[in-house]
Amino acid sequence: MFLFEREINVPAKDTDDLLSYCEQAVLRSLAPGEMPIRFVVTQNDGRTLRCELGVLAGAEGAPAVGPASVFEFARRMAPIFAFAQRAVENTEAFNAVLLVPTGIGAQIGGHCGDAGPVARLLASACHTLITHPNVVNAADINELPENGLYVEGSVISRLLMGRIGLQKVRSNRVLLVIDEHKDRGVSELAVNAASAARATLGIECPVVIRMDPPIYTLSRYAPSGRAAGRIEGLERLCEVLSRHRPAFDAVALSTVIQLPEHWYRDYLPSYGEVINPWGGVEAMLTHAVSLIFDVPSAHAPMVESVELLNMHVGVVDPRKAADAISTTFLYSVLKGLHRSPRIIRAPAAFGQPGVLTAADVSCLVIPDGCVGLPTLAAFRQGIPVIAVRENRNLMKNDLEALPHMPGKLFIVENYLEAVGVMAALRAGVSPAAVRRPLAQTTVVREQAGSDERVGGASHPAGRLG
User: Fold this and answer.
1) What does residue 298 show for φ and ψ, rounded to 5 degrees?
2) Which architecture, in CATH terms, is 95-99+114-347?
3) How far is residue 118's CA from residue 173's CA, in Å, rounded to a whole number?
4) Among 169, 168, 180, 171, which residue's Cα sits nearest to residue 198?
5) CB within 8 A of 428, min separation 6: which ones?
6) What DSSP string runs through 176-188?
7) Which helix (H) or strand (E) holds 55?
8) Domain residues of the chain, as ranges?
9) Is 235 exposed, middle or buried (0-12, 13-18, 19+ CB in 10 A)?
10) pLDDT per residue over 99-134, tens digit each?
11) Side-chain half-sphere exposure of 361, counting CA atoms within 13 A
12) Which residues of the chain have a pLDDT value below 50?
């Protein structure tokens, strides 16, 4: 089994259901036995949707996992693309989803947990903040808010598509799988990280598995400049997880990611716009694990050598400083998975107390220009999307040109404004009502065969600042 990235171009189409249109285009691009695990639109120029797709291939010989084999799972395709329209919106609580996609060079959250303050700010404006490891994992540091849910990215996609629910838990049994490293000291540091989590956090880690030989993980940049890569030997990891399946509720992974040594030296000391090279292939791996085994998962990169661990980098960009002071980058993963919510697939359980579904999501907050499955699903579900201009990134999409329900897209300058929009939505106040000038009320006289519009034009829908 192996994972890789594929670029596909999809002709732009005027449709109210862009999610289904992209789904069909993706499925046509797949060979037999291939499964989509990650999807992003990197650019929409009005004529073509330039898309990059994470693909799992070679699943035919994989062991049985859960209720079906990986091949049967791949053939169904349902967990990644099937869509269930939410019938209602639950207004008993205000719950937000915060996304900063991995490996796109986001100014905020594109390096080492530097979107953590944003998560804490947004969490103060809602009952529950659902976010993913890239936002709050800062090497060995994790500052997930108390009302935050730590959820892998593909799980968030499935949540917004209405296919799963999330159940809060008191704790998880976290299985740790690490590479059998050529430098024994590196493997021992990972074991020490697990011991530290057990001793200080009270986490239950039933076993640390040292994989020998390890899976092969290679980091590379996609045509758009996104961090991506290739993974080989995934069937070995699936076999390990299948054997231990009754013993864990979540999976922590720590593996070596192959990349040119100069990338280490270029990235950490740089104050420029070097894209974090690790995150993209990490997301591919955890997407696959969470989709196949229906459990929370997260990954920490393992250093390739003791020499790199001891490399002197000097004073670095504050957004990367957590990397410079950490050793295993693993404690943040263990802390996040400790209480990561359980994935609920049975629709009969969606209405149970404590289970969050798409009906419970009040808004999605993203960097401006980002279009993936969560954004497309939110547009389809009528979930308000708040896009933040200041969080610049590699993606080149005009969100306003995409099909969405009127009054459900808000373009703001920064995350401080985003919190203001969240507060307005929570209070039931139109954001336009607290801005000036206040547009004239639109009046329409309907006559047979024509419309006559009287009154002032509206303020541009949802655009603030």
Assistant:
1) -160, 160
2) 3-Layer(aba) Sandwich (3.40)
3) 29
4) 171
5) none
6) EEEE--SSHHHHH
7) strand 48-57
8) 2-81, 95-99+114-347
9) middle
10) 999 999 999 999 889 999 999 999 999 999 999 999
11) 34
12) 64-79, 454-461
